[in-house]
Amino acid sequence: YMTIRGKYELIVGIESASRWQLQAIDELTDNKFEVSVRGDSYVACFRDLWWLCEVSLFSASSHECSLRTASFADAFTLTGADLAACVDKCPRCAILMYEYAIEYLAEAAIFLDEHGCPELAPSALPRRITDRLQARGEQMAPKSIARLMSPKPHPQRVADFVSEVMRNSGASPCDDLEGLQHVFGELHPEMGIYCSLKLGKERKQAVTAMLSMAWLVRGDYERFTACQHDDQLTHELWDALQRFVAWVGLTDEIAHAGFVFLALRGIGKSKAFLSAMQHGEQTPEDVVLTLMSSFPLTVPSSSVLTEGGRSLVQKVLVLHRTHNLAQFLQGEIVPGQLAALQEAIHEEGWEAFRLYLLCCVCILCGLGGTETQQGSSFMNQSNGEVLMAGIDVLQRLQTASACGVYWAYIAARAQRVSLPCTSLDELALARLLCLTRSTERDIALLQAGWSGLDRGARETLVEYLTADGIGALAFVFIFLPDYLANAIRNPVVGLRRALLVLVELIESLWSDGSTLQQEPAVLPVNLKDLAEFTASVVSTSVFTAIPEHSGFLQRAGRLDFVVSPKHKHHMPLKTWTDDPAHELTALARKIDRRVGQLTQQVDRVGAGCNAWAI
Prior knowledge:
The chain is an alpha+beta fold and 614 residues long. The chain contains 29 helices and 9 strands. The model is unreliable at 54-61 and 115-120 (pLDDT under 50).
């Protein structure tokens, strides 16, 4: 099976052309094709580059037209053995391919009977089949979900569990894993929904998060730090966590809602559930909200809540959909997103916000749950200090502005490693400190990478890193911390080169007029593809050529940065030279951007001189 990108010619013999073929050829004379007569044949030439594939994957029909490449740029091949290996471990993929093939052949047969020309079948045919299969899947999805059930928890057992945690009395079920997973049926190791969906990692993290919440509420320092052999959480920081728990103001009802949220949240990460949801419901939080309202037997712990507790869980899910604490702690988000959180808090209430913060803390405590559930391995002293710096400022959202809270956190992180924050340049470097997950021992490397940039590159980064997303557009690069961390770990990349490539991406986005007119003022840009490429590349020249071999794809509410498949083939190459045409294009673009920067500087100087003269 082969797919080729290039310019094509469709050739039909004049004498043998059927009426339908002549009509189709006549309709091709638009701005995408050029139709001419060459010898004894009609030749329809594609004006633009197209991706076309050999139809014989599904069809055994004989061809009445000739399709040939006038030129080609890229090719993708897939052997039958490789295709089988791809779908071998995914029965659903094999079923989808089979269903698509059956539908396609049925439609193609009808078209062939009517028109006798399979080559000129409607281009909308694949989309029509795909939409039909998707609609069929959506109709069957509710029935499939309804069949997934967890053991229903006993109301009295749940009430006793919450009471014992809150009053720190007796041997609580939270003292052992076996007791917890029988209180909340979703966590059952054999019959729970996590087991049915094969969400083993998410289940372990949910259990550890719930245990951590119980230890925090009970003040059980020994159990919380049982697995922390290095960099153990100090008693001083534990006392700060205890003051935070007291600030939340837990009651039995609120604590019960928190445990249920932690028990259900991981279920929303199921790819099966995400694909089964209707259009627009594409976040894990939306999945859980839908399960609670439409499929209560799938998440029975929600049905044991009081009316107020159930409402509280729904409000916390909405807040968690709006704001990601981990992204805030890494400096990944912008003040505009904190402003959106403030608006959501006004809608959902401060009680829900306080519980939301506690649940977020417990989620972070549970990140090491895949390794051990005998304590919180993640929430050690280093991670705890970063967490409390963020929690301290977020508690001020009720009275302070979003920008004030945001930059107070960035400044607090900088203060911990003795970095000044008295200018925009210093604030930008402080935010980069968060994005690179730098500690005090990494400061020299961070400053070396920053000072190694030319003035124009630093100005671009300062403008990006200090944009607030409130008064003007700000880009939020998702997976940027992963990209920078992978670059620092990869000896052929390093921080300076990673920042230079980031500068080119930022300037490319700025040069796109349609991007600058985006609403709202915060535009997410997914860099997952770039982060993965950076982790694996083994040649500096291959890495630095990324801007010339990549592009942005528009998705629902965001942009995805995608490295071209052809360039990904160069990842394992230790030596590689780019096409001279690409190198010239890249050089011309850099010169153009540099001229633009100089023009802006001249304009600013001119404006300052005019103001002084006035």
